[in-house]
Amino acid sequence: MGSYASDSAMLKTWRKTPPSSCSLVRLSQLANEKYESSPFSSGGHNWRLVVYPKGNEEDNGKGFVSMYVECLSSTTPPIDVFAYLSFFVFNKKDNKYLSIQDVEVKRFSSSKTVWGLPKAMSLETFTDPAKGFIVEGEPCEFGAHVKIASSPVPVDENLPFHKFSWSIRDFSVLKQNDCISKTFAMGGKNWTLTVYPKGDSEADDEFCKYLHLADSEVLSPGEMISVRAQLRALDPRGSKHKTVWLQQWIMAATKARGIPQSLSLADLQEAYLDEDTLNVEIECEVVNSRKMF
């Protein structure tokens, strides 16, 4: 089996039935460390579901059920395959499938043939008879669905789309933990930027910016928006702007996305303030908007 690769955001929903093209495997006992399904076809390629009912410790999955999809197709010359992955576990108590969807498109290649979720479901939940996933004397049912996706839009240094600029005055003496910009429109939605002048909980000493859906925006269940953005702290004395890229999915459970600027707050105040005003800028676009199954 190829190399493991997993770094994902998950969306969990319930379904009465899995997609018609879903591959299902029924396990009458869970003594083994790993189970592999028979090959199945989707999008002109062959795949295999791999389940670790006790967790894949090699992929930091201890204490969880780990689930993966392996691409079995090979071509000459090799080609990359992009796909969305969904995994399913049948709940006998509710007579429904728990759908665990990886919201990021995955790139399968000759060097990375396996993608999945090392922490698809906690073992505490899975093995609790009251939860309904395991019933004595009956097989457990797992499934996987592969939906072929188009190649992601490549990142371009010069973004020809929406630009929003924001000047934050008296930056060094701000007392609040966060500053929120005015609303701006992009891709049919309203957005705001949030800046943490003192750092946030994940990066205490680094300057952080986040892109938010405005509070007035409500996403329907399963709706997701893919955005890519270039966020900058502008250099007031030249062209050494501090820039980071962001390309992620926004969904109802996580209406904000952002990353530390990799710029210490001390360096920010020394080099990027113009008369105690910080100028920030974002260029961004909505790449895709979709609903999961």
Automatic annotation (TrEMBL):
Organism: Arabidopsis thaliana (Mouse-ear cress)
Lineage: Eukaryota, Viridiplantae, Streptophyta, Embryophyta, Tracheophyta
InterPro entries xrefs: MATH/TRAF_dom (IPR002083), TRAF-like (IPR008974)
MATH domain ranges (all copies): 17-146, 161-284
PANTHER family, sorted: T23K8.6-RELATED, TRAF-LIKE FAMILY PROTEIN
CDD domains named among the record's database cross-references: MATH
Domain of life: Eukaryota
Descriptive protein name: MATH domain-containing protein
Coiled coil ranges: none
